[in-house]
Amino acid sequence: MSGVTWLAACLVLGVVAARLVPQPARLARALAWWILRIALPALVLTLLPRLALDRELWFLVAAMWLVFAGGWAVAAIAGAHYGWTRARIGALALLAGLGNTAFTGYPLIAALRGPEALPFAAVADQLGCFIALSTGGVIVASWYGGERVHAGALVRRILLFPPFLACIAGLLAGQLGGWPGWLDQVLRLVGATLSPLALFTIGLQLHWRVDAAQLQAVGIGLGWKLIAAPALVWLLGIAAGAGGLVLAVGVLQAAMGPMVSAAILAGEHRLDTTVANAMLAIGVLVSLASVPLIDALL
Questions:
Q1: Where residue 179 sits, what CATH number does that domain have?
Q2: Which of 17, 65, 255, 273 lies most in the core, judged by the most C-beta atoms within 10 Å?
Q3: From the DSSP assignment, how many helices (H) and strands (E) are in the chain?
Q4: Which domain holds residue 262?
């Protein structure tokens, strides 16, 4: 559990720094650039070459799409029932459907299940949640934000995103025997910066202001993301015969708090950013306790 404690400490340090540094938003953007374009690709490049491709891995991808589709359905049904605006429905769909499978997923799973579980976490993140963000997430954000979705732009966004390129390169490197030892060591050192910086960056961006009506939406969204989604993924895994680390990682990745990039996407498309930021703040903090609890139940 020391790994989880370390993650919580990094998050708290980010919250403190947000009140001490002159421009925390600017610092957060700079750190996010490093995390998304340098540290995350480096970590993916170290993990995927070690992954033995197996037919069971489909479960990890399917689990992330189940979470996304379920989050969208919950948002749409609740929105129709309570008369929410399209902006609120869209924000809830993004934050309830997309989990922090990289920034908190990797370090939490490493702390709970050991480094041997990280390649499976990378499959769920890169081939599951990331593709869901880049395709379904953009469609949801554009649709509820009143914009039109262009297929060409979607394809370019996927193909040119550094972590996705790293995913392809890592899979190819695995088929060719892996990286030279010196390069693998460099990639490991760079990738090791992801976990502390990611939690620190999340702390820099946490916002807490939310009224009672918005809190209702936050509660419904997090009820799906932190409780119902991992339960349904577990049922899917049992029905499909998945087991071992594949089942455990699929359930734990489904249980992660909302994705930082989903909140950013909601803001870019003028969705309900108050609900999005509240879901992010509360969800990340609660998941640091709920994910270890779910792991113990497994």
A1: 1.20.1530
A2: 255
A3: 18, 0
A4: 2-297
